Structure formats: structure tokens, C-alpha cells
Amino acid sequence: MPAGLKKLSLRILQDFSGSNGSLEKSSQPERVELHVRAGEPGVQQQHEEASAGWTKGSKLAALLKHPLYNIPVPEVTEKDKLFVVNPMEKFSLRSSGSDEWVSSSKAEALLPTGKTAYDTYPTWLKFHIGINRYELYPRRDPLLPALLRDLATQRIVSSVQKSGGTQLKLIMTFPNYGQALFKPMKQTRDQETPIDFFYFSDFERHNAEIAAFHLDRILDFRRIPPVSGRLVNITKEIRDITTDKKLVKTFFISPAGNVCFYGECSYYCSTEHALCGKPDQLEGSMAALLPDKTLAKRRSWRSPWRRSYHKSKKAEWELNPNYCTQVRETPPYDSGHRLLDLIDMAILDFLMGNMDRHHYETFEKFGNDTFLLHLDNGRGFGTHSHDEPSILAPLQQCCSIKKSTYLRLQLLATEPYRLSDVLREALAADPLAPVLAEPHLQALDRRLGKVLLAVGHCLARAAHQEKVLVDDVGSWV
Fold it and tell me: Do 138 and 122 contact (CB within 8 A), yes or no?
């Protein structure tokens, strides 16, 4: 994170992620109340059609009006917010062409009548401020269309390679200090993962990141940061502005006259696997970055159903049919909703065919009483002709699922709200549409049927159905 950006965020946000109270568990109120982002100053609530980017009469609009998508989350208190806004700080760009911020006293004169300090914050900062214990963003977030638009259109002022990881990724910075994770296009829409590839050597696909965000939202998880597609000029928006000397050295002109580069990484960073523009235009996904870890610490957890990442060895869960019993006895899966959240994530991964879920993260401030972050989804949507049953192991072995998740899956299997139709509609608004080839959308409906069948088998064997369908909706449905 640039030094200027870090100072800006520190002044605006009072971060309590390191406080002693950060691991306190909030008690559930007897009657939950609707939570919206309107608790922040300066935000006006908008109707669904205006805030979600779809038109009246659409299947997606109808889905989000359904009662299952209007079950309230618990009331958000101050300790449930990732950040508490410091209302004394007002910031604005010095001019439209400037990268400098005007702070506090100088900003007073720049604020139009009736505007608050919150109104001066860029969309990415408002997104960060809105994160709480229960969700990454609200269902009808009025900021979402603007944030996706910024990811797709904001001028790129810096591009550097992200350290770590197995494949090439770039951190791109905008004039308002917003940042995005750029994953470049490696495969065309109709290409499938080669059948001889291991899951750990598969390509990371930019369109999978875009589709995963929308699928996660349609399932009402809202645990993936917003992602938009973007066509990037790799000459003007990467090579000519990067300060990454190692990255610059990997640029070359191909025999076809296209601008190419490959960066440095563990897999596919070589001349033979170079990323080439047409002649310098390259598709990619732009994912909004989460708050810097110096401001909001995150904890990484090894998934109990992690694969062996070995060519021949199997993980314990693949050999022990009673594996879930020991998971249920192990913190943090022995209490709360952590195990059910993990099963939610397994269902998401099965629907998009992602076998590469070795870790997940949570915000440290909220302890164990919070949602899981569904990050790194680039290895999804690689194969539409094969459904990998082992991805559903957490559901099949534990035979438990949130009632709300099950009811939404049932709804998405009906004609008025068919999953493939709703996702197709959501993806149609992306700048890189069509994001998925039609066979991948059809595979979603087939896989959804298999998830429901797995739950049906659990219910058929269960002595008490409430052990399978764990009630998290109460009287709201």
C-alpha cells in the first residue's frame, strides 16, 4: 500500500482490529432487525432496480425480491463494524487531474452545502467502511454499481506484480488511491482444463473470478469482493507506467507483432506461456482489494478438507468416511456456524468446479463469529463436462446445511429463478460479456441438482431432520 494511502486510511478509519474486545462474540438478539449501509452518514438508500444494475421484470430482480432474499441480518453495532468512521476527517482530491488529497481543515471549504465528510470518500473506501461481522456488502448495496464501474473504467496510474502466488497477478492503482487485483486472460471461453492437468497446476481464469463474484452474490453469501472484467492496454497501462523492473524485463514483441509479457511466478511465467495482447489489448479481471492487513488483520485458516497437493497421495478426508466426526470436535468447528459456513463454501466450489480451496480467511477482529472470505476463485469454471463429486465432501460427510442455503438452492432450481438464467443475466452487464460459455451455465443447473440430491440422501437417513437442515431463519420464512 502506498504511504500516502496508508496515512489517509489511518486518519479516516479508527481500526479496532487489534483491541482486546476484537474477539468478543456478539449475542444474537431475540428479534433481528434489518441492517442496511444507511448507518453511515451521507448514504441514501436506493431502490433495487437502481442499485443492482438490472432492469425491471428480470429474473434477477424477481429473485432479490423473494422473501428468502429479504431475511434480515442481525443489527450491526459499533463492535460489529470492521472500521468506525472518524467524522472529523474530510478528504477531497486537490483537482480533477491531481493525485493529492486535501485533508481536514482545507477540505471544509471544498464541501458543497449539505454534504458530509463521508460524501468525499471514494467508492472503494466506502466499501471498506461498510464491511461488518455479518457481510462483506449488503444485498442492495447502492455503492456496488459505482464500485464495479470504477474497476472497469478508472484510469490506471500504477501496475506492479503481486508477490507470492503460483501465477501472474498485478496490483493496479487508480488516481483516487483505490486498488484492484488484475488477473489476465489465459484461456478462451470455450477452452476446458486439459484432462491430464492436476488441480494444483490448472490455469487461473479471469472469467472465473468475474463469474464467481456474481454466483456468490446470487447464492446470497456475499463473501467475495466485487469483481469486474476490463480490457487493458498492456503497453500504456502496464509496461509504460510500472516501476517493477523485473516485470518490465519480461515484455517482448511476438512474431505476430503483439505485445507480450510473462512476469515472475511459479507456474506459466515463461516465454512459452506469455500473455499477449491483440496487439496490446488484453482481457482481465479487476477485483476490489480488501483493506490493507495493517488496518484490518486477517487470519488464514487451513481447510479441514484441503487436498494433498500431491500427484498420488490422498488426504485423510478422502480415506476416512467418518472424518467429519473429528472435525466437529475440533475448534473452531465444534461450536457456532463455522462448519456450516465451510459447507456453504464447498457448495459454491462444487457449482463452479473449483478443487483448489486449500485455505480460507476471516477478519481477525471478529474472532470465530463471522463469515468466511471466499478469495481466489480463478480455478473455477475450468471444466463443464465433468462434475467433481469430491468437492462436496464436507456436505456429504457432515450431512448438515443451513436451512436458508437449502431453501435458496431449491428456489434456484425452479423455472422462474433458474440458476443458469439468473447468472447469465447478471454476467450480461459485465464489460467482457459473455463471461461464460453456455455449457458452463448449463452445468450449473446440473450440479445444483446434485447438491439437492446429496441433501436429500442425508434427510432420508437422518433420524432428526433438524440435524441436517440447521435452522438459521426462524420465523422469517
Answer: no
